[in-house]
Amino acid sequence: MKQLFDSWDGTATHGIKVIEKNKEHIASLQIFDSFEDVSPFSKPENELLIKVIQKQKLVMYTLRNSKEELLQKAKKVNQKSRIIESYINMKKTPVFVDRGM
To answer: What is the spatial distance between Cα 97 and Cα 40, in angstroms, rounded to a whole number?
Structure first.
């Protein structure tokens, strides 16, 4: 798990791949959650797990920020398209009713 997180290049797309690859490892570690009284890991293993968890939090933080940036860009694109559409609709030649003036 640590090797996968250490190979992360800081991008959102690679972060998704790293998390997908680590899902199997995380699932195998969840078995140990049932041991409430005694930790099945040694002190170095616990420290390594803490480092892995910190790295995963960093990846998740990056993914959330990337998602927010994409949402903001999508809003801007939608707003620009609405402005363009309203401009095009205004360019249509208006039809006037001749009331004998």
So the answer is: 86
